[in-house]
C-alpha cells in the first residue's frame, strides 16, 4: 500500500491504495464519489470519465497512484452548491440527452472538456469527440443536440436531420 494525495473537487483527498488500484475505484470506494460509473472492463464505455488536471480521462485507465498530486474533478462538482446545474447538465435536461442516465456522468464530463477546448464544435466534431463514450439508450442524437445547445448553437439543423430520416 502507498499513500496518495490529490485534490478532488477542490478538496484535498488522501488515502492508502494498492499499486493496482484504479482511479475510478479510489473515487468510488474510498471517496464515495459514486457518480463516476463503471460500465465496462475494457476501457471502452466512457462512463468513468473525469477531469484530471483539466483533461478528460477515463478513470478506469489510470492508476490512483498516477493521479497523486493531481487535481481531479468529478460529476459531483459540476452543479453549483445550491444544485443549479451547469450549462451542459441543463442542456441535457432540456433536450432529453439521457434516458437511463448511466452514461450521463461520463458524457457530461467529456462534453464539458470538449467545450473548454472547442467552444463551438460542429456536429461532426461532437460525434468524433464522443467516440469514446457509449450510450445504450439514446442513439446519441439528443446527446449531440444537448451539446450543441450548451455551446449556444442552433439545434434546428439537427432536428431537421432526424425529421429527414
Ligand atoms: S468503465 Fe472506464 S471506459 Fe468503461
Ligand atoms: S442514457 Fe442510458 S446508457 Fe446512456
Automatic annotation (TrEMBL):
Q: Which GO terms describe its molecular function?
A: 2 iron, 2 sulfur cluster binding; metal ion binding; oxidoreductase activity
SUPFAM superfamilies annotated for this entry? 2Fe-2S ferredoxin-like, CO dehydrogenase ISP C-domain like
Keyword match Cytoplasm: no
Family matches, as Gene3D superfamilies: 3.10.20.30, [2Fe-2S]-binding domain
Q: Name one Pfam family in it.
A: Fer2_2
What are the UniProt keywords, alphabetically? 2Fe-2S, Iron, Iron-sulfur, Metal-binding, Oxidoreductase
Query: InterPro entries, per this entry?
Result: 2Fe-2S-bd, 2Fe-2S-bd_dom_sf, 2Fe-2S_ferredoxin-like_sf, 2Fe-2S_ferredoxin-type, Beta-grasp_dom_sf, Diverse_Oxidoreductases
Q: Report the residue ranges that make up the 2Fe-2S ferredoxin-type domain in this protein.
A: 2-78
Q: Which PANTHER family match?
A: OXIDOREDUCTASE WITH IRON-SULFUR SUBUNIT
Recorded protein name is: Carbon monoxide dehydrogenase
Q: Which species is the source of this protein?
A: Litorivita pollutaquae
Amino acid at each position: 500500500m502507498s499513500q496518495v494525495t490529490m485534490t478532488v473537487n477542490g478538496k484535498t483527498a488522501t488515502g492508502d491504495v494498492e499499486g493496482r488500484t484504479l482511479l475510478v475505484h479510489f473515487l468510488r470506494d474510498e471517496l464515495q464519489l459514486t457518480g463516476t460509473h463503471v460500465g465496462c472492463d475494457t476501457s471502452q464505455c466512457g462512463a468513468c470519465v473525469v477531469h484530471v488536471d483539466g483533461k478528460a480521462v477515463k478513470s478506469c485507465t489510470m492508476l490512483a497512484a498516477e493521479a497523486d498530486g493531481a487535481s481531479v474533478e468529478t460529476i459531483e462538482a459540476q452543479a453549483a452548491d445550491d444544485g443549479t446545474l451547469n450549462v451542459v447538465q441543463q442542456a441535457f435536461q432540456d433536450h432529453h440527452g439521457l434516458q437511463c442516465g448511466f452514461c450521463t456522468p461520463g458524457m457530461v464530463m467529456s462534453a464539458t472538456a470538449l467545450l473548454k477546448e472547442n467552444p463551438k464544435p460542429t456536429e461532426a466534431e461532437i460525434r468524433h469527440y464522443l467516440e469514446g463514450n457509449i450510450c445504450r439508450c439514446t442513439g446519441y442524437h439528443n446527446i449531440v443536440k444537448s451539446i450543441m445547445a450548451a455551446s449556444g448553437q442552433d439545434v434546428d439543423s439537427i432536428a431537421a436531420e432526424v425529421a429527414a430520416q
